Amino acid sequence: MTTQTDYPQTAKNYGVLDRPSSVPTMHKETLRMLLHEELARARIRDMHRAIDGPRHDLRLARAARRWNRVARWAARRSRRYSR
User: Fold this and answer.
1) pTM for this predicted structure
2) Are 65 and 73 in contact (CB under 8 A)?
3) Torsions phi, psi of 22, nearest 5?
4) Polar residues: which segments have biased composition (predicted)?
């Protein structure tokens, strides 16, 4: 025997107070927190740039050598097939 409570209740009436609000109630504290987070991200980015500086230069030099090799290979190939 089934009762009405065995079926899923789909027609619930949620009031405004039952739903979580997406608007922050503490606007000033939220802005302060976001500013601190952005400052922390900027410091982390600066730290990574300082650490990665010499490696970045090496990476660019390595990429330049690789593209030079590719350009030489393409030039040889084009001379071979343009005859």
Assistant:
1) 0.36
2) no
3) -90, -10
4) 1-12
